[in-house]
Design brief:
The protein folds into two domains: 2-144, Butyryl-CoA Dehydrogenase, subunit A, domain 3 (Up-down Bundle), CATH 1.20.140; 158-230, Zinc/RING finger domain, C3HC4 (zinc finger) (Herpes Virus-1, 2-Layer Sandwich), CATH 3.30.40.10. The chain has six helices and ten strands; from the N terminus they run βαββαααβαβββββαβ. The longest helix has 34 residues, at 79-112. Helix content is 48%, strand content 13%. It has helices at 5-28, 53-67, 69-73, 79-112, 120-141, 210-220, and strands at residues 2-3, 33-37, 45-48, 116-118, 143-144, 171-172, 174-176, 198-201, 207-209, 229-230. It is an alpha/beta fold. It is rod-shaped.
């Protein structure tokens, strides 16, 4: 799915909030009965998620990893790093969270060698764990779209307007722009560009904000206008 930088940041904020909620809900499932042991027809012993040390540790660590994604990514300025952090923490947290009920059902219960039945708390735990993994995959699939080129110039003529080039197929670099035409607009963020914060593509001459093009190149590796590959 392709979104702009602004849409990506908004989506990652929502994803981080959902991860924090799911992480908290998963840890709350530890308070629910996961399994009921029935040694006879009169007695039933409930095993909650927190009763087993391994399931308690796996669920808490998994929930915390998923929950801190939004907090950690809030200190980062690059969208690519925000995506990487959210995706990594969500998948790692979801995997540990899913391992918790799986361990109880596949390892711990067989060792006890007792008859019993699965309780709804185990299903709730597994559901929240899978939801964490799904949200992590959603974050990983978020991609930036290429901008639509829109220019707004004041007091200039067509002869001073930068010319668009569809393709170049070569390599390019970005250098500080010595001067910028009045009213020039960055086609990544659609804001006015000033010479203090402008860089120019050596191949097509298009100008951008330094921060905008750094973010674009980190994700796409080329010039948004002429598509020349940016040399590292």
């Amino acid at each position: 799915m392709m979104v702009t930088v602004e849409e990506a940041l908004a989506r990652f904020f929502k994803i981080g909030a959902v991860l924090a909620l799911l992480g908290a809900l998963h840890m709350l499932t530890l308070l629910l009965p996961w399994y009921v042991v029935s040694p006879d027809t009169l007695v039933q012993v409930y095993i909650n998620g927190y009763n087993v040390l391994e399931t308690l540790a796996l669920s808490v660590v998994g929930g915390v990893l998923a929950g801190v994604g939004l907090f950690v990514s809030s200190f980062m300025s690059r969208v690519s790093r925000v995506r990487l952090v959210l995706t990594s923490l969500a998948i790692a947290g979801g995997a540990l969270a899913a391992l918790s009920p799986t361990y109880l059902l596949m390892v711990k219960i067989p060792r006890l060698q007792v008859a019993g039945n699965i309780e709804w708390g185990l299903f709730a735990s597994l559901f929240t764990a899978l939801a964490l993994l799904a949200v992590g995959i959603l974050a990983a699939l978020t991609r930036l779209s290429e901008p639509r080129y829109t220019y707004s110039f004041t007091g200039t003529t067509a002869s001073t307007m930068p010319q668009l080039e569809e393709t170049s197929g070569g390599e390019t670099t970005f250098e500080p722009a010595e001067s910028v035409d009045e009213g020039a607009m960055c086609t990544i963020c659609y804001q006015d560009v000033s010479a203090d914060d402008a860089v120019k593509c050596a191949s097509c001459g298009m100008v951008y904000h330094r921060g905008c093009i750094d973010e674009w190149v980190s994700l796409n590796g080329n010039c948004p206008n002429c598509k020349s590959v940016v040399k590292s």
